[in-house]
Amino acid sequence: MAEARGLRRAAVAAAAVGATTTLASAAGSLAAAAYFARRVLTPERQRPDDTEILEVRDGRVLLSATDETVVPGRYGLWLDGGEGHARIGDITATDAAAGTVEREVHGTDHGELRPGGARFDGYYWAGTPEQALGLRTESVDFPGELGRMPAWLVPSPEGRGTRWAVCVHGRGALRQETLRALPALHTAGLTSLVPTYRNDEDVPAGPDGRYNLGLSEWRDLEAAVEYAVRSGAEEVVLVGWSMGGAIVLQFLDRSPMADVVSRVVLDGPVIDWGDVLDHHARLHRLPRGVGLLSRSMMGRGWGKRFVGVHESVDVARTDWVSRAGELRHPMLVVHSAEDEFVPVGPSRALAQHRPDLVTYEEWQLARHCKEWNTDPQRWERVVGDFVS
């Protein structure tokens, strides 16, 4: 959700910059491209409400109908600016004329579910793994390139053991994004580590305070894997959502610690950032030349000053369809045909190029990284079978 909102705003704002300048001029194109690139790479700290709670009654909640709230499945609602949280389930009624949808209420984790603004989320669960799922959780930290990085550690049923999973959330997301995976990993006998990485809330920022689309964040994942190995892990399964998938792929390519990884699970992953950026530029009618220029500015030394990055963000290095021959780890890719933020095409293409390594599971209906939400039984079975 945070990723989708961020790139939508970036594309709209860049199109506005382009519209209010003379796009025929180099200066106008440069300004629009730089603005788009900066918005893509800048963490968003503000998470505005996007859903209206209209009525709460008898275990049901009436919501404004949006692209998110009308999709079947189980989801969450952040209340009171993120201070409260409620879990909602199946659709019980819709009224197209009124623009409303009624859903079951599964529970309120904290705060009060009442009429007013809310923020829709795909995490479903909130809090720590112990609070949300009843799984014993240790709060740990590990030394990273930029300082101490906090993490959750959920031991396997037999203790820490030698088989670990390291779970990597997406761009602008919280660690709670990974909670949906922990029961399946726990049942499969894995100890789970849920780390943070640079530019997360309440952790050290990168030198430029911007996302590098996995091209620097992989070093924080490396530090997490090193911690797992020091703590007894002999085999590591990596699990990544969205940009977390891009981080995982860079780690596998660039870290000597990749040899300890046995399997990889990617959910709605960014297989090719160039494809994602092109998709959002097209959605908002950003001129093609501006979109291409923004990518060039991210990756070239001359553009770093305009974009505000410490190290170049070479989008070409994130194209794993073109680089498919370099992959060497067995991989489960879960992706939805209806993913509105990360188009499914590169995931399909990667599976076609590397059927020897990639097990591909495609969903319908689910929006970005919400496959579990629409069919949790299938997701847990597919993932559990793969990691076992």
TrEMBL record:
Q: What are the UniProt keywords, alphabetically?
A: Signal
Q: Identify the SUPFAM superfamilies for this entry.
A: alpha/beta-Hydrolases
Report the Pfam families cross-referenced here.
Abhydrolase_6
User: Signal peptide span per the entry?
Assistant: 1-26
Domain called AB hydrolase-1: residue spans: 166-343
Keyword Signal set for record: yes
Protein name, as recorded: AB hydrolase-1 domain-containing protein
Q: Which residues form a coiled coil?
A: none
User: Superkingdom, according to UniProt?
Assistant: Bacteria
